[in-house]
Amino acid sequence: MSSSVPADMINLRLILVSGKTKEFLFSPNDSAADIAKHVYDNWPMDWEEEQVSSPNILRLIYQGRFLHGNVTLGALKLPFGKTTVMHLVARETLPEPNSQGQRNREKTGESNCCVIL
Questions:
Q1: How far, in Å, are 31, 34, 42, 91, 113 from residue 116 at the CA level?
Q2: What is the Cα–Cα distance from 18 to 48, expressed in whole angstroms?
Q3: What is the rounded distance in angstroms from the CA atom of residue 1 to the CA atom of residue 56?
Q4: Share of the chain above pLDDT 70, in %
Q5: How many Cβ atoms sit within 10 Å of the Cβ of residue 99?
Q6: How does pLDDT run across 19-63, given as a tens digit for each residue?
Q7: Using CA of residue 60, residue 39, residue 73, residue 78, what is the dihedral sign?
Q8: What is the 3-state secondary structure (H, E, C) of 21-81?
Q9: Does residue 116 surpass a pLDDT of 60?
C-alpha cells in the first residue's frame, strides 16, 4: 500500500500493543481525534480481539508522545506521500503534557527554561 500513497495524503501504519499493524490514509488536516474515530469506525477484521468500546479511548503515540485530540497530522509536519508509523493504544486518560519531564526536572534540579519538541 505504501508504494502508492497519494502525494497530498499521509499514510499511517498503526501498531497495536499486540504487534498487529494496519495502514490508513489521512489528510494533513485530520486530527488525532478524527483518526481515532475513523479507525474505530473501520476497525480491521484481524484486530477483532483488541476491539474497544468507544473511539474516545483510542490514543495515538508518535515518537514516544501521546497526541492530544486536536493535533493535526499537518501540525506534526509529517511527510506527504509517505508512511509514518504510530502506536495505537486504548487508554482512558492522557498524561498531562510534559508531566514526566517536569518530574524529571524536579528530581535533577534542572531549570524549567526550555521545552524540547
A1: 22, 26, 35, 24, 10
A2: 12
A3: 27
A4: 77
A5: 10
A6: 999 999 999 999 999 999 999 999 999 999 999 999 999 999 999
A7: positive
A8: EEEEEECCCCEHHHHHHHHHHCCCHHHHHHCCCCHHHEEEEECCEECCCCCECCCCCCCCC
A9: no
Backbone angles phi, psi at 86, to 5 degrees: -135, 155
User: Cβ atoms within 10 A of the Cβ of 4, count?
Assistant: 8
- Give the start-to-end residue ranges of the domains of the chain: 8-88
CA distance 41 to 38: 5
pTM of full prediction above 0.85: no
pLDDT of residue 97: 64
Q: Which residue has the cell 494533513?
A: 28
Kindly report the CA angle at 57 between 55 and 62, in degrees rounded to 5? 100
CATH of 8-88, one of 3.10.20.90, 3.40.50.970, 3.30.450.20, 3.40.50.1000: 3.10.20.90
Extract the C-alpha cell encoding 41: 469506525
pLDDT computed for residue 105 by the predictor: 47
